[in-house]
Amino acid sequence: LKEFGYGDNQDPGMVYRYLRRLEKRGMIESKWDTSGTGPARRMYKVTPDGNELLAVWTETIRYNIQVLQQFLERYEKAIQGVKTQDELGSTGGGAAPKFVGSAE
What we know:
The chain is mainly alpha-helical. The protein has helices spanning 12-24, 48-88, and strands spanning 28-33, 41-46.
């Protein structure tokens, strides 16, 4: 999990509960590795169904990133327009649009 930026604060019990759920749903499979020294380790592998689901999630995330990027670009343009109107003392006859979290 550290490789993905999750740090040391993850509850191992929670992680293993999720792994068991994924295994029950056929997204991963596991087997015990007893080849090394020390206690046996459970090794996990993504199944073909799991890879299909990951591909769908990946496309969904890409789509959401695109939607959010478009929103941010439009928002920045709108804010820039409001700032420009405020700086120039707009006489356009209408009030500048209010945004959630605005000071007024």
